[in-house]
Design brief:
The chain folds into 2 domains: 3-195, no CATH class; 198-331, no CATH class. The protein contains 10 helices and 11 strands. The chain has helices at residues 3-18, 25-34, 41-53, 132-152, 170-183, 185-195, 209-219, 221-228, 235-271, 302-313, and strands at 56-57, 63-65, 82-91, 108-112, 115-123, 156-158, 164-167, 198-208, 274-277, 287-298, 318-326. Strand 4 (108-112) and strand 5 (115-123) form a beta hairpin.
Length: 332
């Protein structure tokens, strides 16, 4: 998948959550496939860990899992009201945006309390459609605006798809938004300082079980002794002996996986400001995922992170997948 498709995946997940549907590989592939976006199952699994750690929204833009303050979305389905759709909150001065928003809406900035909300004006109702191609276009456009915000500002807090602030008109919605920026300003500024000039990268380490097994059979003293005991046994005894041998091999591979996780976590910590641990996913073929990390990295230092993990995995029956940069979903 290319960078555009990676972005589509994140916001397709946000769209599924907004619709109250589970974020699964099948649902993501169906949604993006209908829009003509090719999906690699392995890449979907890699990116799901980031999505699961990022902001989630329920219907009308309300958070299902609230990791950071979100503006209220009262009367979000009253089509007689107006709303401001919030893409991101940044720190700095308002500047004009070149990227068009959802449905080619004009994107502009609303300042308040030293913060800037990146928004467009719309009807006070959720973005919902049964046409998957339409939804795909929306989430791509959402990501494009967030991407420009990340290019223009040093600290960006990305908002989930369909986050809105409503009012009786545009001016009233802007007043509500500025009030929220004031009320939650201290928390938002703290979070912005946390991610200032930093981006998120996903790091997944895989153990090749097929290549690890003969290595364990040859080097683990306990397993070597069990192998020697296989000679001269009856068929019945051999069965149970082989079962015990396989059990010990699995135990040794599990120990190796645990060791690799600890070493990978420590290695990530030497190259990242913060490291978050995600759920392990099912690997492909004989690959077993042993580490699933989200790393908050200083801008311009990602190559050192990639090189460190490439060097670490070389010659050990390990492989690594590094994805990013992403807006810092796991750390806001």
């Amino acid at each position: 998948m290319n960078k555009r498709d990676d972005a589509s995946l994140i916001y397709a997940a946000a769209t599924l959550r907004s619709a109250g549907k589970p974020v699964t590989r099948e649902n993501l592939s169906t949604l993006l496939g209908a829009a003509g976006v090719q999906t690699d199952p392995a890449e979907v699994d890699a990116l799901l860990s980031l999505v699961e750690g990022g902001p989630a929204t329920g219907p009308q833009g309300r958070p299902a899992r609230q990791a950071s303050p979100r503006p209220r979305t009262e009367n979000a389905q009253d089509t007689h009201q107006r709303a401001l759709y919030v893409y991101a909150v940044t720190v700095g001065e308002p500047i004009p945006f070149e990227t068009a928003g959802i449905d080619d809406a004009e994107v502009f900035a609303v300042p308040g309390n030293g913060l800037v909300a990146v928004v467009h004006e719309c009807a006070a109702k959720p973005y919902a459609s049964k046409d998957k191609e339409t939804v795909e276009k929306w989430v791509i456009r959402h990501q494009a605006v967030v991407a420009e915000a990340c290019q223009r500002y040093a600290a960006v807090l990305p908002m989930a798809f369909d986050t809105m602030v409503s009012g009786k008109d545009r001016a009233d919605a802007a007043d509500h938004l500025r009030r929220w920026l004031h009320d939650e300003g201290d928390v938002l500024l703290q979070k912005a300082d946390r991610v200032r000039r930093r981006q998120e990268y996903g790091v997944q380490v895989f153990l090749d079980v097929e290549s690890a097994t003969p290595d364990v059979m040859a080097t683990c003293p306990e397993v070597v002794e069990l192998k020697k005991g296989l000679t001269g046994k009856s068929e019945g005894a051999l069965y149970f002996q082989r079962q015990e041998l396989e059990k010990r091999v699995r135990e040794q591979i599990l120990k190796r996986a645990e060791t690799v996780f600890r070493e990978a976590f420590d290695l990530a910590g030497r190259h990242a400001v913060e490291v978050s641990v995600g759920k392990l996913k099912t690997g492909e073929d004989n690959l077993r995922m042993v580490a699933n990390l989200s790393c908050l990295v200083e801008n311009g230092t990602d190559e050192a992170l990639r090189a460190a993990f490439t060097d670490y995995c070389t010659g050990k029956g390990l492989s690594v997948r590094v994805t990013g940069p992403w807006p810092p979903y796991s750390f806001t």
